[in-house]
Write a structure and sequence with these properties.
globular, 5-stranded antiparallel sheet, 17 strands, mainly beta
């Protein structure tokens, strides 16, 4: 009986430690490493997002998502698919399942083959919301050069780039595959959920500092 109690106590301690570690990861400050910080830019002001999970308020108007990443390289001898993946949600059901430590293959919206088709000249300036949970997807964003990009270049620090994704419109895809596009200033959406993933070491796993989860409310 004493042995069973000892085993149960060890299991309880391990579970408690794991839970505490998850909470620390979700709310810890990422600003000690500049490349882990993302920014929301609106009306000439840049808001630094320093924690993995935050809730912010924005004006119901266009905004930009800014982040750091390396240059995307698709050459024959040096392939580095450095990209930032962004998924948006109207509810938090799937959003809450995205956690540090998970392999991207186990996250429907970030799994292989779920990137949306986009132009390679940076002209896409919208976020796409899915209303059908069986149709997960994300915006696959990168910068290779001025003619091959889905992001704007803000600053070039050599090995590291500061990049920007402009958002002027919201698109909502219904289960029948029809899409409604609305300028943000005219949208009826008052709150949405934004997951930003940058797999810096390209290991197909969400490591510490690679994920930001934002709950965004319009004023």
């Amino acid at each position: 009986m004493n042995n069973l109690k000892s085993i149960f106590l060890v299991i309880l301690i391990l579970c408690s430690c794991q839970t505490s570690q998850t909470l620390i990861t979700d709310h810890s400050d990422l600003s000690t490493n500049e490349e882990h910080v993302v920014y929301i830019y609106q009306n000439g002001e840049e808001l630094a997002i320093k924690k993995q999970s935050e809730t912010i308020e924005l004006e119901k108007n266009s905004f930009s998502i800014r982040c750091y990443n390396e240059c995307y390289n698709d050459t024959l001898h040096l392939t580095k698919y450095n990209a930032t993946q962004i998924a948006v949600f109207l509810t938090d059901r799937e959003f809450n399942k995205i956690q540090t430590g998970l392999a991207t293959t186990n996250i429907p919206c970030f799994s292989p083959g779920t990137g949306y088709a986009m132009y390679g000249d940076g002209s896409d300036k919208h976020l796409l919301f899915e209303t059908d949970s069986d149709r997960p997807g994300h915006h696959y964003l990168y910068y290779e050069n001025t003619t091959s990009r889905r992001l704007n270049l803000i600053d070039d620090f050599g090995d590291l780039l500061k990049l920007e994704f402009e958002v002027n419109e919201f698109c909502v895809r219904k289960p029948d595959n029809t899409i409604t596009t609305t300028p943000i200033s005219s949208t009826e959406i008052t709150k949405f959920f934004l997951a930003i993933l940058t797999d810096r070491n390209l290991n197909d796993t969400i490591d510490f500092g690679e994920l930001h989860k934002l709950t965004i409310k319009f004023k």
